[in-house]
Amino acid sequence: MLTKFQARNIKLPARLRRLSELAYNLWFSWNDSALSLFSRIDPVLWNQYQHNPVRLLTEIDPAVLEKRAQDSGFLKTMDAVLNEYDEYMAASTWFSQQYPQHTRQAIAYFSAEFGFHESLPIYSGGLGVLAGDHCKSASDLGIPLAGIGLLYKKGYFNQKLDGHGAQFAESVSYDFDKLPIIPAYVPAENGAAPGEELYVTVAVADREVRLKVWQVQVGRNPVYLLDADLEVNSPWDRELTAQLYGGNQDTRIAQEILLGVGGVKALRALGLPTGAYHINEGHAAFLAFERIREQLDKGLPFHVALEIIRASTVFTTHTPVPAGHDAFPMAMFDYYFSRLFHDYAQHREAFRQLGYDQGKNAFNMTYLAMNAAALRNGVSKLHGHVSREMFRAFHGDIDVREVPIGHITNGIHLPTWLAPELKELYSRFLPGTWTLNQANPDLWEKINLIPDESLWSVHKSLKEKLVLHARANLREHRRRNSMTAERIEEVREYLNPDALTIGFARRFATYKRANLIFGDLDRLDRLVNDPERPVQFLFAGKAHPADHPGQELIREIYRVSQMDRFRGKVVLLENYDMNLARYLVQGVDVWLNNPRRPYEASGTSGEKAAMNGVINFSVLDGWWEEGYDGTNGWSIEANNEADFETQERENTESIYRVLEEEIVPLYYSESGVPSPWVKRMKRSIVTLAPMYNTDRMVMDYTNVTYVPSLQRTQHFVANEHEEATKVADYKRFIRENWHHVRIVEVNDGGTVQNAEKEVTATVKFGPVWYKDTAVEILYYEERPGGWEPVLVPMEPARELEERTVLYRARIPGHLKHGAHFSVRVHPVSANFIRRFELPLLTSL
Ligand SMILES: *Cc1c(COP(=O)(O)O)cnc(C)c1O
């Protein structure tokens, strides 16, 4: 384990002492036995306290605990859970077996939000839940990962709707002493008194902001959260960590400085040896500034410092829309870094250039992240492609396929999202170690052995659970809005557990087009009110308080849900969070997702649904574009080349058509157990579960980014940074002299033999050594999937005059220079991790 974890001691009867450990380790959030143990202490309080075990144990009547301490049934279960926990914490892991040489250095994972559990509300949506699931799988796999984030005093808001569907954002000030977090302590080896709490200080503009460091224990690994709400800070600075995505641009840049710079300082103060850094979305990219500054203090030149940082940094981008990337006006940026620029005046321009967007005269966080990270990726295959298009100009307009941004498709943490009832069922048919081998497709084939009746009956029970939960949610909304007793009571009749049930829940951002299904209300009416084959819809989601079009979507759904013809059949639930998300992705029949393509970078809620046998019905965007195979769900079609309005019309038509002609008939194909439907549920689980889980995803990150970064960094810094210095000097030299490199002449007049001919090119290099470049012919060939680039390396034939070299290659005889092919030169080096690490290219 990376660090020692010492839970706070909650005052408990002696026999229950170890419940403190369980309450302070988020391990409980993905272990059903632990969750049900806490629930058993007092089910009502447990629900009332958002399933927060720390609050439960601190606020409950001590007499109840005394009673549990005498209850042998309870004690037996508790001991079994503790046993499970101890075994988990001590087990040998995938990482310790695969990479025993890398267990001593942490991978620091920086993210502005983390969604671990509803009891710790420091997430707003998919990005946070992904970060939480990433940390949980890292723990399961034994990867020494330390998370870094901010601790928001008011978290993200609670959503309340009024009697017209208007969203009211309720903010709650959390008592940190009642959350499952503990203060981080100064390591004893620094001469600290035991229990001395850890603080760091960060320069923000001309001020010093002090941060308290907290620790969330996520299984084997820590996540550190920074908190500015301290008396020593000015009232304005105390507010900096008040809310997730609150405030204005000033709040935003200041938060990002606290996260990036403060996070690195916290790692140092903790004495945690850190070998690689993961920037999860641009918000965290300022970590590069602090790390460069550290290297400058060691006496390294800026360009060498940057090479070391690049080698050890991984960047994941999540936003396929240019406007979604954080950018700050240069004047604001200069103001907030005035202290840094005062102390490191000679490097001011170099720091600014790292994120400078000339077109907008702004400092772009994604540019900074890309300049600071040698390895970058999008979050699905399609999003990788969209990102390469979007950042092609940033890389010197090379061919889009060569832009150095890859992809690692998002997944979800299976133990968190799979219904306990299904875990039990799957365990009866899958090999005993299935949870440790989720990424193995062969293992999932065994799902086909489950009798249809068994899978269907578990699914039905989950749907009934959802219906009860939804009714309670609706009742609470009506009660709070002082509706009549009759209106409150009628909710009892809402939602039919036997009807085909479709779920739509996610943040209400406009690109997700939550109202698409309302394009033709009469047609919807016919679906919903079919007496033989009824369909019902559940909606849920929050809109950001500043997103007025998003809130208008909520009002529209609410209005439809109140129409007589849709009453109790189209419902909108309040306060979408991880708790409600679990009920929905486990309990509906179909998961609907119809974003404007390609705006959904990945999407993950459909992945949660898939593992639970809920069938996806979605636009071919994000993960579904690669997950859908024609048999494991349904696609919502449109001509992707058409304008947005046409696509919207076609998508809407497609939704109705597929529902009417395929989904409804399949669901109602047989009375009793609908075998054709269950067959598709199984197809969905078998084909999607092994791929779209975070174990597979985090193993990919480890194999493809973390371990290569750790190794490359070790190589770069050895012998007084010898390699880093060489690479940095080399890059600088090439950049400064590249303008000398010119292709003077291309001759394609060679005789055609065997349908091939020889082409020669004359290249003038100036001071650049010809062996530090690659000279290539580029042409395009038509293949089944479209036009593909073909690269033919050219060989140096002889030196014509000083620093001018003749190259030659053989290519198909019909290709003409200028019309069909071009010749290009770009720098290469054995130390580049990607072909176009230096975005320099000369072509003719
Ligand atoms: C999984 C999840 C999301 C992400 O859903 P998408 O459909 O991928 O946007 C958002 N919010 C919560 C609470 C979630 O659990």
The gross shape turns out to be globular
SS summary, helix count: 30
CATH topology of the largest domain: Rossmann fold
Proportion of strand residues: 15-25%
- Main pleated sheet: 10 strands, mixed
The CATH architecture of the largest domain comes to: 3-Layer(aba) Sandwich
Question: CATH homologous superfamily of the largest domain?
Answer: Glycogen Phosphorylase B
Q: Briefly, what CATH class of the largest domain?
A: Alpha Beta
How much helix, percentage-wise, in residues? Answer: 40-55%
Q: How far do the termini sit from each other?
A: 56 Å
Q: Count the domains.
A: 3
Pfam family, one: Phosphorylase
Family: Belongs to the glycogen phosphorylase family.
Protein name: Alpha-glucan phosphorylase
GO biological process, one term: carbohydrate metabolic process
Please summarize what this structure is.
The protein is about 40% helix and about 20% strand. By secondary structure, the chain is an alpha/beta fold.
Based on the model shown, name its key terms:
Agluc_phsphrylas; Glyco_trans_35; six-stranded parallel beta sheet; Rossmann fold; pyridoxal phosphate; globular; 844 residues; Glycogen/Maltodextrin_Phosph; ten-stranded mixed beta sheet; Immunoglobulin-like; Alpha-glucan phosphorylase; binds pyridoxal-5'-phosphate
Written description of the protein model:
- By secondary structure, this protein is an alpha/beta fold.
- It folds into three domains: 104-410 and 710-717, 3-Layer(aba) Sandwich (Rossmann fold), CATH 3.40.50; 440-693, Glycogen Phosphorylase B (Rossmann fold, 3-Layer(aba) Sandwich), CATH 3.40.50.2000; 741-843, Sandwich (Immunoglobulin-like).
- 40% of the residues lie in helices and 19% in strands.
- It is built from 30 helices and 29 strands.
- Strands 1, 2, 5, 6, 7, 8, 9, 10, 14 and 15 form a ten-stranded mixed sheet that branches.
- Helix 8 crosses helix 30 (694-737).
- The two termini are 56 Å apart.
- Pyridoxal-5'-phosphate binds at residues 125-126, 129, 506, 576-578, 581, 603-605, 608.
